[in-house]
Structures are given as C-alpha cells and as structure tokens.
Amino acid sequence: MPPSVYDLDPNIVISQNVNEKGLVVIEGKLTKPVISSNVKLSIKYENSQGNWIIGWYKMLYSYNRYNENLKATLELPASMQSSYNLKIELSSDSNLNDFNSVKWDRTISHYKQSDYAPASCDLDENEYTILLTPKKENTLITDTNGKVIGLKDRVTSVYSWNKLSDILPMSNKKDNVVFTPKIPSTLINESNGVKSIKLLNNGIVSDTLGSTPEFIYNNVSVLKRLDGEE
Fold this sequence. Notes:
Elements: E1 4-15, E2 22-32, E3 39-46, E4 52-60, E5 66-76, E6 83-92, E7 103-112, E8 140-142, E9 148-152, E10 163-164, E11 168-169, E12 178-181, E13 186-189, E14 195-198, E15 210-211
Antiparallel strand pairs: 1-6, 2-5, 2-7, 3-4, 3-6, 8-9, 9-12, 10-11, 12-15, 13-14
C-alpha cells in the first residue's frame, strides 16, 4: 500500500548564499494525540534536479501523545541556487484520516555557513525506556576521588503521556534510577568531547560489573503477553 501523505507546510522558501552551505532550524510546540497508526514527520528540500530530499525526520508513534517543544535542524548543501524550496510532510503507511490532529506551532530560522559550526545531535529522551549516557550534564555521580559511582537514567516519568509500545505507560517509569558500578570506575574524557566509563572485572567472567535497581518501573496493573492474553 502506498503511503498516505499530508503537507503540513508545502511552501517554505529559504534564501541562501550561492556555493555555501546553510543551516535551517525549525522549532516549536508539537502536539499529537493517540492515533491509529505511526506518522513520519519529514522536512524535505528540493535539489537542483527537482527531486525532494529528506533532510530530517522523526517518527511519531501511534500510541504516544506529544505535547512538547520539538527542534529540528538540517544542513542545506552548497549550491548554485540562491534559494531552496522546503516543505514539511506527514506520511503514514496506512490510510490515515486524522493527520490534522498533528500540530507543530513552529518558527523557522536560517544561518549562513559562517554563522554556525557542526555539532553532535542530542538524543530524544522520550524515545527510550532507559538511557544511560555520561555525556549529558548532571548524570554522573562521583566520589571524592573523581571515580564514577553512579550514572543517572535520563528517562523519567516526565513524559507521562507516552507509552512504551502499547504496554507500559510512561507514568509508571521510576524517576532517579541510577546505574551503580560494582567498583568505582574511571571516567574517560576523549578529545572530541565523548565521555565513557571504564568498567573493570577483577573476578570471574560471570561477575556483575554494575546494575540498576531490580525494577525501573512502578507496579503495572496489566501486562499483555505476546499471545494477547492477560
């Protein structure tokens, strides 16, 4: 079945210096209720051959409610053109009838090549069930010697409108879940800004190197088995 397509904004014109790259930032409040199928939110630009190229996209899952600020960034390639045509598109693999329930109140900014520098993107925390990433600020717990004794989970119940598939509501997610190394561990800082934690095993192969609490969710009233029974 061909995808259903809906133009959220079919006509965006961006002026850009000839033979220079440029950065487009689109940001604003995204809202979406629970709907019948997944929706792909895409930002496309038209190249010199007239083809529409996806420069950025995000999958909006059917079972998730969104009520948050969404920031999308995409770099437009250098071109002989002095402007680019862009559009924001919603698509679904099913015959979806409620595209108009997805709303993005957004502003659009453009930066010429000399006004920005490439950087790493951040992870969308509400797309994960557990997220242990030491690069994020305020996630590390260290002792007086600077050794890592804890790493905080970034996924919390703040995304209470979201669900993990159609089984666990995010409101059941425990806050302040901490992964604790068995032995205080060394934090490694790379020259490119990447951080990692060195976990050492001084025992046998099957020894545990670290752990979170036994449960990272509060009590769940209903768990659906894979066969559909409760």
